[in-house]
Specification:
Strand content: 15-25%
Number of domains: 1
Number of strands: 11
Radius of gyration: 18 Å
Bound molecules: S-adenosylmethionine
Order of helices and strands: HHHHEHEHEHEHEHEEEHEEE
Largest sheet: 8 strands, mixed
Helix content: 25-40%
Structural class: alpha/beta
Number of helices: 10
Strand order of the largest sheet: 3-2-1-4-5-11-9-10
Oligomer: single chain
Length: 293
């Protein structure tokens, strides 16, 4: 694919990350950066080299806001309202889909992302719909420093984003940061692809919930226990990729529980999970309150 060998900002990316700083917009690579063998690119920091300008510009073709609104329905809004949550931290803003849905529904939302390209696109998407996003450019691993002394009713980490963390200590660190920006009775809503199914039975998709665009295909081109490499092919023949860590459902639940959350409910494709069900995505809702029933 175009630009794979181009490594314009890899060095500056590394030095920024070494200082626990995200990569500023002017240093963001223009094309996706992978090594000679892309299946060896397995690092938490690598998302910065994947959400590049020309992929971000196409992200909304992939997720299709209208179809996604229909697929998800009111799931997140209903849950947050039923639990009386109002002040929301969207830690994986991407192009702004959930931030905008929630603002539109009357929630108070702060929108975080580690990718400057994504935040610029999200701000623009919101503005086009008549909203101004409150954005924070920060990485989950040092979230508390970047959102500065604020506490939230809910943290949402949606769109299969947590899968970008390749090292277990980064997953634990990110969950500890999510836990600590929450009020004493706050909740975390975190979703993930059903990697158990892909690892155990191969890939299939109902294509209904997340990657809803009809003119785009998203499929794994390489899988092992430590890597899911997905290819996104667009109508004009262009291709982009994401390297992700294939989280097993029970492993994710254990990590969330180890971070201190007292209760976790897991839904499959926005419904109560049923035995034998094989959903495309899981949504975990985790409760911080000690007495969560
Ligand atoms: C798959 S996209 C999902 C975006 C959006 N939530 C959606 O559903 O369309 C994942 C997002 O997580 C962000 N991200 C990945 N790792 C991150 C990290 N360590 N800190 C902050 N943001 C991160 C990426 O920049 C990207 O915008």
């Amino acid at each position: 694919m175009s630009g794979q060998s181009e490594r314009p900002s890899a060095e500056s990316n590394d030095s920024n990350l070494a200082k626990n700083e995200v990569v500023p917009l002017h240093e963001s690579p223009k094309h996706q950066v992978y090594g000679e063998d892309p299946t060896q690119d397995r690092s938490t920091d690598h998302y910065q080299a994947e959400y590049v300008e020309n992929f971000v510009e196409r992200w909304d073709e992939l997720i299709d806001w209208d179809a996604r609104t229909e697929g998800e329905g009111q799931f997140f809004i209903d849950k947050l309202r039923a639990l009386g949550k109002e002040k929301i931290l969207d830690v994986a803003t991407g192009t702004g889909f959930h931030s905008v849905q929630l603002i539109k529904a009357g929630f108070n939302v702060t929108s975080v992302d580690g990718s400057a390209q994504m935040l610029v696109k999200a701000f623009d998407n919101a503005q086009k719909r008549g909203y101004v996003l409150t954005t924070v450019h920060g990485d989950w691993r040092w979230l508390n420093r970047d959102v500065e002394d604020q506490q939230f009713d809910a943290v949402i980490c949606l769109g299969n984003s947590f899968t970008h963390l390749f090292e277990e200590h980064d997953r634990r660190r990110a969950l500890a940061e999510f836990y600590s920006v929450l009020k004493h009775d706050g909740i975390l809503i975190l979703d993930q692809r059903n990697y158990d199914s892909i690892l155990d039975n191969g890939f299939s998709t109902k294509h209904k919930y997340y990657y809803c665009g009809e003119r785009v295909s998203a499929k794994p081109i390489y899988m092992d226990d430590g890597l899911a490499r997905f290819e996104y092919s667009f109508e004009d023949g262009s291709k982009h990729h994401l390297n992700m860590f294939p989280l097993r459902k029970d492993y994710t639940r254990k990590l969330i529980s180890d971070a201190g959350f007292q209760k976790i409910e897991t839904f499959g494709d926005f419904k109560e999970t049923q035995p034998g069900q094989d959903p495309d995505f899981f949504v975990h809702i985790a409760y911080k309150a000690y007495d969560a029933e």
